[in-house]
Amino acid sequence: MVDDSGMSKSIQPQQTAAFYAQAVASFGISLTAMTVALIYLPAQPWVRAFLALGLLYTVTSTVVLCKVVRDRQELSDVTTRVDQARLDKLLTEHDPFKVDS
After folding, report:
1. What is the DSSP code string of 24-93?
2. What is the SS3 assignment for 30?
3. Better pLDDT: 57 or 10
4. Is residue 9 within 8 Å of residue 3, measured between CB atoms?
5. How far apart are alpha carbons 85 and 83 in whole angstroms?
6. Which one of 22, 55, 58, 66 has the largest count of C-beta atoms within 10 Å of its C-beta?
7. Is residue 12 classed exposed, middle or buried when 0-12, 13-18 and 19+ CB atoms within 10 A define those classes?
8. Distance, CA of 23 to CA of 2 (rounded, Å)
9. In the Cβ-directed half-sphere of 36, how many Cα atoms lie within 13 Å?
10. Is 51:41 a contact under the CB 8 Å cutoff?
11. CA atoms in the 13 A half-sphere facing the CB of 16
12. Which tens digit of pLDDT belongs to each residue from 54-71?
């Protein structure tokens, strides 16, 4: 895609509202189901507390992993855009018909 200035624009991926809602609902339902299962689990309180702590650790580490993956992807996109800008500048400044005297 080319804008009015002649530079190319990258196409940004879009998320639909339905996809976002499905992801949020899925996370909420699974977390609620696990919490209810831990509450009604026929086990001693320390066993339920240990499993709840494991669930909390899994959820927090998943959120951190998602952030790291997103940040790495954004860094890759920025690096690609900077490299593309440098290449565009070199190509616009290059004159193949220039004769050195």
Report:
1. HHHHHHHHHHHHHHHHH-SS-HHHHHHHHHHHHHHHHHHHHHHHHHHHHHHHHHHHHHHHHHHHHHHHHH
2. helix
3. 57
4. yes
5. 5
6. 55
7. exposed
8. 33
9. 6
10. yes
11. 3
12. 999 999 999 999 999 888
Residue with tokens 């499905």: 22
Whether 40 contacts 30, CB under 8 Å: no
pLDDT at 48 (0 to 100): 93
Angle (CA) 87-91-95 rounded to 5° is 155
Q: Show Cβ contacts of residue 9 under 8 Å, excluding neighbours closer than 6 positions.
A: 1, 2, 3
Residues 6+ apart with CB under 8 A from 35: 52, 55
Q: Provide the residue type at 84 as one letter.
A: Q
CA dist 9 and 1 (Å) reads 6
Cα 8 to Cα 94: distance, rounded to the nearest angstrom: 18
